[in-house]
Amino acid sequence: MSVGNRGDVSLLVCIALLCAGCGNDRTSSNEKQARTTETIADLGALPLYVTDPADNPSSPEKVNLGRLLFFDPVLSGNKDVSCATCHQPEFNYAEFLETSIGVNGVGSGSKRRFIETNDLPFVKRNSQSILNTAFNGIKNGELYEPEKAPMFWDLRAKGLEMQALEPIRTLEEMRGNSFHEDKVLDEIIERIRKIPAYSVLFSEAFSGEQEPVNQLNLSRAIASYERTLIAPNTRFDQYMRGDSNALSTSEKDGLNAFLVTGCAKCHSGPMFSDYKLHTLGVPDTDNRKESDAGINNDYAFRTPSLRNLRYTGPYMHSGKFATLEQVLMFYEDVAGGKILNSNVKKEQMDSLATHMDVNFKDISRIVEFLNTLNDDSFDKTVPASVPSGLPVKGL
């Protein structure tokens, strides 16, 4: 891809650094090998269009149905919370809370609270944005397979179709205490079948099927809608496509600092993520009593995308950092040998983080570059009503 004129390219040519190998390699300081810093070629512009799975091609009917389902609390056990409760258009389809309040909650945004008689916990992790998840898994020069796209902080699901049903099954997110994990989706499908408007919409979206209202089609409709929620034309994307004036000189300096400090070792490719699990010692949220050790009990969580960060704070899996400056100061502390989570041992820490070279002087420049990854021109349409007749987005 073009990245502007030769002067811009030369500005971004990075020197070799002494740094560690990949993953949780325990190489001692005397055994470190020289490694060339990542360059702008390790990043990339997003495609302007998404790729659909072969078994779920998009259609206007599917997208319309998926949008209604996304905002309809009929999908939750208590009919009080929808997908949009924790993934709000005004917050980049994320939420401005450390960790979310799902079932048994009322209110929206910072005013959301549990009802007085509550026995359910906060959602376990920070609500990740759904925006651009259609591109999860995309890498430079590799075939993109949307059905294998890595999802969630712990990679427990692949593809938006699989991802769409997980919150419905999860106790504190949408299921609640009224239904068992193995039975709740059967209940949801029965509810939807009894709503005439949904019967028509499913028949139109999945024509030719004898019983189109089923779990598979529920997931396909929601996934089809989520694939329309993209923001692929940031100023950084424009720069990568050849517009050398899309970034200012100071923003290019910030890009260079982003590369030299080692950020791109994990935040790479068009989505600025390697989609891998890394142990960083991030502090736990105070919203849960138990410590979150992750899916493998090693405190490793997936590298999040850096796109549209302006709208998706707070940050990290626990939502402990309110600003990007705090995130970068955390990495400066990690590189200095500090571990902010007392449950994480030194030998567990990922060497890609401990050998970063983030300095206070770089932080403001890197944040300035990260703001070039924002694109506010995504679909924020909220339906005026939903077929169930319940409050749009929930209580």
First-to-last CA distance: 47 Å
- Return the average pLDDT rounded to an integer: 91
CATH superfamily of the largest domain: Cytochrome c-like domain
- Listing every helix as H and every strand as E from the N terminus to the C terminus, the arrangement reads HEEHHEEEEHHHHHHHEEHHH
- Tell me the β content: 5-15%
Proportion of helical residues = 25-40%
Category from helices, strands and their pairing? mainly alpha
User: For the record, what CATH class of the largest domain applies?
Assistant: Mainly Alpha
Overall body shape: globular
In DSSP terms, counting alpha (H) and pi (I) runs of 4 or more, how many helices?
Answer: 13
Largest sheet: 2 strands, antiparallel
- According to CATH, the fold-level topology of the largest domain is Cytochrome Bc1 Complex, Chain D, domain 2
How many separate domains make up the residues? 2
Uncertain residue segments: 1-34
State the total count of DSSP E strands.
Answer: 8
Radius of gyration: 22 Å
Please give the CATH architecture of the largest domain. Orthogonal Bundle
Q: How are strands sequenced across the largest beta sheet?
A: 1-2
